[in-house]
Amino acid sequence: MRMTSSEIDQVAATWALRVQEGPLSPENEAELQRWLASDPRHFGAYTRAMGALAYFERAKALKSAPSTRGDAFTSMAARRRVMQFFGAAACFGVAVVGSAIWRAMSSRTSTRKGEVRVMPLEDGSEVALDTETTVQTAFGSGHRTVRLVAGKALFDVARDETRPFIVRAGRVKARAVGTSFSVQLLARDQVRVLVRDGKVEVTRDAAFGAARQAPLLLSANMSTLASDLPTMTANTETSESVDRQLAWRSGLLDFDEESLELAAEQFARYSDYALQVDPDVANERITGRFAATDARGFAKAAAGSLGLTADLGVQSASLHR
Amino acid sequence: MRAITSERAQWVARELLPHEAGLRSWLRRRVRPPFEVDDIVQETYAVFGAMETVDHIRSPRNYMFQTAHTVLLAQIRRANVVSFESLVEIEGMDFVSDWPSPEDDVAARLELQRVKMLIDGLPARRREAFALFKIHGLSQKAIARHMGISQGTVEKHLSKAISALLVAIGNGGNLPQKASGSVDGSNSAKPPCG
Predict the structure, then answer these.
(1) Does A4 or B189 have the greater pLDDT score?
(2) Which of A148, A226, B4, B5 is most exposed, with minimal Cβ within 10 Å?
(3) Which neighbouring-strand residues pair with A286?
(4) Confidence band (pLDDT; 50, 70, 90) for A267?
(5) How far apart are the CA of A216 and the nearest CA of chain B, in angstroms?
(6) By CA distance, what is A50's nearest residue in B?
(7) How far off is chain B from A207, nearest CA to CA, in Å?
(8) Please, which residues have CB within 8 angstroms of residue A186's CB and are 6 or more apart in sequence?
């Protein structure tokens, strides 16, 4: 039976996981050996899958951090060195710390248009910067402050009760202890805060002469938009929606029934490829995940799935009936 | 009996995986149907997996390219579809003038951060299972208990996460871009939702 190479990879990954889980039974061992012997590609895929599993062992962190969720983890984290490598860790409220092999971050960092970058901070926190984003850090003995000068960033904050982590964007201040949240500066001084995990306290400097506002406390799967309205309200999101809104970290834009007009605006943040959406079709709804820097590919795909026409050029495209 | 020791797995991770994307782009310029890049890459890894020792290898990257080249030639000979003259042509041209170019190097840069971002981009449950596995070091049994799912489902989550990672490694840290606009690597028409 000749399998396709991706089928082989899938089977190899499963075997590699089983082997890592523990010693195989004699029957399983025999089955594995049979499979490995039947085609040189099988053994190659198996070698590669074992390498992939080993790949993550390379980034073991130097510090461990206490978990914040569930007693089942607390003792485990205390016993083992936790590999603080993935932002996924923040999903469990476990603080993310950087590894010694990463360079320390300079105080001011910017991304270009279309560039998405992840970087560690000196306290072990991590910042993922979206397109055209600038952040500036100022850590002190009693505080960890980051100023979002432009764009959007996701902060995975290492737990440090002695030093609150504060993100300043425009007039808005987002304060966290150990959590994962994104802050975005929008047009007209609007600031959007989206919490993935943990708790974030959002305050806003009062406009000149105006009364002080009470802080807004957001927890996981909540967001707020600080606009020119006098108060900020908290919105609840589904975890799927939060995942979609964070797809940019993988260089993707993830739409669920989004209007073509707004989708095109999102693509404009990542490249200079101009997407012209005819007013007649601006409110057509598109769903799907797309590479953020491939606006032309999106135009083609959107036309295909919505039954529209796309005039595809080298530097621009237009969508119409 | 074929086995991959922990040391060999780590060596593969450190010395071969980072260059895979570059190798693939180099092969794509030289491999035509009925031969396939995926097959050649897998057979190349098999050679390294079967080696008694790898300590003697001074430049694993060059050795990887060399091995892939040998695998390709062996496949061509086995298939017996080219005349002797064309075979000589392939050997002469490729070996001397066209060895890994700077472009292949650029294509091969697999940064840990980008792989991290890719794992971060996995669907929520799969990411959770993978983080429990790799960060907290839980056994699949414990993960199943914690997530309230069967061990078989855990294994499926993990092997799909590994597969996604392998695809990413082959693409130099990027998810493959498909003409249809869907980038989750599957061929289904519906939008990917994990």
Answers:
(1) A4
(2) B5
(3) A258
(4) very high
(5) 27
(6) B9
(7) 38
(8) A192, A225
**Order of strands across the sheet with A316-320?**
A274-277, A316-320, A309-312
Give the integer Cα–Cα distance in Å for B55 and A86. 31
**From residue A47, how far is each of A31, A55, A290, B116, B175 by CA, in Å?**
17, 12, 32, 21, 22
CA distance A8 to B92: 33
Distance from CA of B42 to the nearest CA of A (A): 5
Predicted pLDDT of residue A68 = 31
* Mean pLDDT over each residue of chain A, to the nearest integer: 80
Chain A residue with the nearest C-alpha to that of B1: A33
> Rounded to an integer, what distance in angstroms lies between the CA atom of residue A164 and that of residue A171?
18
As a residue count, chain B comes to 194
User: Chain-centre distance of CA B46, in angstroms?
Assistant: 12
Collapse the DSSP code of A235 into the 3-class scheme (helix H, G, I; strand E, B; otherwise coil) and give the result: strand
* Pair of tokens at residue B26: 């180099």
CB–CB of A51 and B146 under 8 A?
no
Q: Does B86 touch chain A (CB under 8 A)?
A: no
Which of B42, B43, B151 best probes binding to A when mutated, by most A CB atoms within 10 angstroms? B42
Is A78's Cβ below 8 Å from some Cβ in B? no
Kindly give the parts of chain B with pLDDT less than 70: 80-118, 135-136, 172-194
Give the minimum alpha-carbon distance from A298 to chain B in angstroms, rounded to a whole number: 6
Cα diameter, chain A: 79
Amino acid identity of residue A149, one-letter, is: V
Residue B193 has a CB neighbour count (10 Å cut-off) of 13
A288-308 per-position pLDDT tens digit: 889 888 899 999 999 999 999
> E strand or H helix at A138, and its extent?
strand A134-139
Alpha carbon distance A85, B4 (integer Å) = 25
pLDDT digits (tens, 9 = 90+) for A123-178: 778 889 999 999 998 887 777 889 999 999 999 888 777 888 999 998 899 999 66
Candidates A189, A173, A99, A267; CA nearest to A181 is: A173
Q: How many helices (H) and strands (E) does chain B have?
A: 10, 0
Q: Which three-class secondary structure state does DSSP give residue A181?
A: strand
pTM (predicted TM-score): 0.45
Listing DSSP states for A269-287 in one string gives TT-S-EEEE-GGGTT-EEE
CB contact under 8 A, B175 and A119: no
pLDDT at B193: 25
For residue B95, the one-letter residue type is F
B54 touches chain A (CB under 8 A): no
Q: For A73-101, what is each residue's pLDDT tens digit?
A: 333 333 232 333 333 333 332 222 232 22
Residues in A touching B157 (Cβ below 8 Å): none
